[in-house]
Fold:
Amino acid sequence: MAIRNIRQYGDSVLEKRCKEVTEMTPRTIDLINDMIETMYEGNGVGLAACQVGILKRIVVIDTTGEDLHILINPRIVEQSGEQTGSEGCLSLPGKSGIVTRPNYVKCVALNEKMEPIELEGTELLARAICHELDHLDGHMYVEKVQGELSEVSYDEDGEEA
Ligand code: NI
Structure:
């Protein structure tokens, strides 16, 4: 596994639509493992393949540190409610903004064995699913921010203060 370079806001790869994954290959398994490592190393709760420069419909999400989800070709099939809160992105470090998202979403996807799975989430998990799926269509949360982006301050351990 390896840490990959995270593409930063303004990079045109983040504005492109990612392509469906049609078969699982050793290269794609390597990509998924690298995405997981890169997400954890960056203290992120999710990462989309385009953020490491690969235009495939793959996201990894872990909102608690012990709840890893690998979603291939994910699609939201149900959503309800509303939540408004702070959001950030590994492609725009040091910034956050207020975004309104559904409070509940259900998505269907494939896992790393290309088997169909469902994932339901509320609150932060619902937010992460929406945020990451937007990346697959070339969208970033900054397009949805209410008001201005804020600076995030970090303490000496690099955690959000
Ligand atoms: Ni992001």
